[in-house]
Write a structure and sequence with these properties.
about 290 residues, alpha/beta, six-stranded mixed beta sheet, five-stranded mixed β-barrel, about 25% strand, globular
């Protein structure tokens, strides 16, 4: 039996890097019986069959896991956004960042296409909230070296709405990858989905990165929702104020004496971030407990 990391999952096959080679595996039937799905990034135990193939026997304990992107054991979520076409809705950023915060995974916010629009307002929102925030242009190379330094030695997932340039940035980070890129549809204002599956790539700086399928505002409905009372802890700039509200159990939505709302009014928390929180809170209230992951 050997151990390794799943680098790619496609059509029921799992491509496992054992350190001495890539083994193409099928998962044993017990995974289906237990309704357990191996994810890209999983550390797994396999039985090698001697012909480059193997059987996936067990998933080793995970550091964290995500449904979308479908990855596990991620150190850093790199959220690619854009102030140019397609313009990123801040809610999309806040949703995936909230999920990452709840999974004990750090986030980096990268505004690509800064040669077309520097996204100054949003850049400042996330910088003030305490996130590592970068301006980038896959076209001109601006910010590429900064991102390369940030992700060095880490296991990272790149995500963002379709068409913002995730694959283009990966190609800029590691010339020679040749990942497929797609033009943004002028009619739809979003990218064609050029990435169809999740796959891990090793970079020369020691980083392991995942290029993931892009998502639209509709896809966020498929993402994980935390319980309403847990959401407040996934907005890091709320934390200094959570024990200062007048009433215990404050939802920070419309309650009087709410320290979070006061911080928004005083400019210490961005209104867009609080608006995203309220939207997520209301959505979370509508989800039956049995649907939560």
């Amino acid at each position: 039996m050997a151990e390794g990391t799943i680098l790619k999952a496609l059509s029921g096959f799992y491509y496992v890097d054992t350190g001495s080679g890539l083994v193409t595996c099928r998962a044993r039937g017990k995974f289906r019986h237990n309704r357990q799905t191996p994810l890209v990034g999983d550390r797994v135990a396999i039985t090698e069959l001697g012909d480059g193939t193997g059987a996936l026997d067990a998933i080793l304990p995970r550091k964290n896991e995500f449904q979308r992107p479908a990855v596990a054991n991620i150190d850093l979520l790199v959220v690619i956004a854009s102030g140019a076409t397609p313009v990123t809705d801040p809610f999309l950023i806040d949703r995936v960042v909230s999920i990452a915060e709840g999974r004990d995974c750090e986030s980096v916010i990268c505004f690509n296409k800064c040669d077309l629009n520097d996204a100054e307002e949003l850049f400042q929102v996330y910088r003030r909230a305490g996130f590592t925030t970068l301006r980038m242009s896959a076209e001109t190379g601006e910010g590429v070296e900064d991102l390369r330094c940030v992700i060095a030695g880490k296991v990272c997932a790149f995500t963002g709405n379709s068409g913002v340039g995730k694959s283009s940035i990966l190609n800029a980070l590691e010339p020679g990858f040749g990942l497929q890129t797609g033009a943004v549809s002028e009619k739809l204002g979003r990218g064609r989905h050029t990435t169809r599956h999740v796959e891990l790539f090793r970079l020369s700086n020691g980083a392991i990165v995942a290029d993931t399928p892009g998502f639209s505002s509709f896809d966020t409905e498929l993402m994980e929702l935390r319980r309403p009372e847990e959401l407040q802890y996934t907005f890091r700039e709320f934390r200094p104020y959570l024990d200062q509200c007048r009433f215990q159990g404050c939802a920070h939505v419309k309650e009087k004496g709410c320290a979070v709302r006061a911080a928004v009014k005083e400019g210490r928390i961005a209104p867009s971030r609080h608006a995203s929180y309220v939207r997520l809170y209301e959505q979370a209230r509508e989800v039956p407990e049995w649907k939560r992951k």
